[in-house]
Design brief:
single chain, 182 residues, alpha+beta, 5 strands
């Protein structure tokens, strides 16, 4: 059953399910990297800035590290506080179920995330709102050479422009290997 068809609760279930199933981190995004600032820019520049915020959000949200996080929820909270709206941070608070968590803990592992923009005719910028998406390739890495490839996912971000940057307001994740949303 596709739980993503239900408003709000479905979106939250999608976020929890897939973010939980996709813990990750990327060496390209630093822990304290701020969102890119936006001025009233041309639509192409606005879209690029929003896509960058979606990429950064995804990298941090999927960036669970079993050596420093107490649960997968910590990575999602970092992403929401850094790149999301307060409402998104509130929605994601405490959502830490992750089927890969026990595996990560057992191997003292973290997940490396590589992202690529999804460029399949994205919707236009409408006022202060836009959508963006990235494909995330994930690999679990342990300290003694252990690695495990995890399913690739596509992360769809809804963003709103604030006075100085774009902020993620909602996120949906889809497992590309199964072709079904989670």
């Amino acid at each position: 059953m596709n739980h993503c068809s239900r408003p709000v609760r479905g979106v939250l279930a999608c976020v929890v399910a897939l973010l939980a199933a996709t813990a990750c981190t990327s060496p390209a995004t630093t822990e304290h990297e701020a969102p890119p600032t936006v001025a009233q820019a041309a639509p192409g520049q606005a879209r690029a800035a929003a896509a960058e915020v979606c990429r950064r959000f995804t990298t941090v949200a999927l960036g669970v590290d079993a050596t420093r996080d107490l649960s997968p929820a910590e990575a999602r909270q970092r992403a929401a506080h850094r790149y999301g709206t307060p409402a998104l941070a509130e929605q994601l608070a405490g959502h830490g179920h992750d089927p890969t968590w026990a595996l990560l803990v057992r191997h003292d592992a973290h997940i490396e995330v590589r992202t690529e923009p999804v460029s399949d005719d994205p919707p236009p910028v409408r006022g202060d709102s836009v959508g963006a998406a990235v494909t995330a390739t994930r690999t679990a890495l342990g300290p003694r050479g252990w690695t495990q490839r995890l399913p690739e996912v596509v992360v769809y971000c809804s963003l709103v422009r604030t006075s100085d940057t774009w902020r993620v307001t909602a996120v949906t994740v889809s497992d590309t290997t199964m072709g079904a949303q989670q």
